[in-house]
């Protein structure tokens, strides 16, 4: 890491693979090792994030990608990503609720394994894993301990 940064989270294989943390640095980067840690190798495009990065915001930006790239063929991916992006915007604008976290997990449950191609499944990885490891970061937005990253204007202007 750069001086002054500590590793907070990383993806072993890109945004479609569940996040891992500093506790997983000794995980062997092979299929079995990563699977045993609860993730997958994916594209092996490792992405590294420091403690100055926000897992909630990173997940939101990934979801924007999946929402944009969804071809719309099947309902779970098309609608699920559409709505999850909106929930993230609400949370990041300081207007989220505790129920939003259940909504995100429920939506992922309805996308994973129910989408026609891997894009739908991949979209859920960062959501469920970030909620597993970094739920407190979500609660800090919802309960007002972290300043909003998105403005009301960005929320209203969302499409
Ligand atoms: S899962 Fe694949 S086929 Fe279905 S809407 Fe998403 S991108 Fe299209």
Topology readout:
Blueprint lengths: L6 E5 L8 E2 L9 H6 L10 E4 L4 H15 L5 H18 L5 H14 L6 H16 L1 H8 L9 H5 L3
Antiparallel strand pairs: 1-2, 1-3
Helix pairs in contact: 2-3, 2-5, 3-4, 3-5, 4-5
Bound molecules: iron/sulfur cluster.
- Please outline the major beta sheet: 3 strands, antiparallel
- Give the strand order, joined by hyphens, for the main sheet: 2-1-3
Q: Give the proportion of residues in helices.
A: 40-55%
CATH architecture of the largest domain: Up-down Bundle
In DSSP terms (H or I, runs of 4 or more residues), the helix count works out at 7
| Order of secondary-structure elements | EEHEHHHHHH
Detail the poorly predicted runs.
none
Which geometry do the CA atoms define? globular
Describe it.
With 159 residues, the protein is mainly α. The chain folds into 2 domains: 51 residues, Ubiquitin-like (UB roll); 106 residues, de novo design (two linked rop proteins), CATH 1.20.1440. 52% of the residues lie in helices and 7% in strands. Strands 2-1-3 form a 3-stranded antiparallel beta sheet, with no helix packed on it. Strand 1 and strand 2 form a beta hairpin. Helix 2 packs antiparallel against helix 5. The radius of gyration is 15 Å and the shape is globular. The mean pLDDT is 95. Iron/sulfur cluster binds next to helix 3 and helix 5.
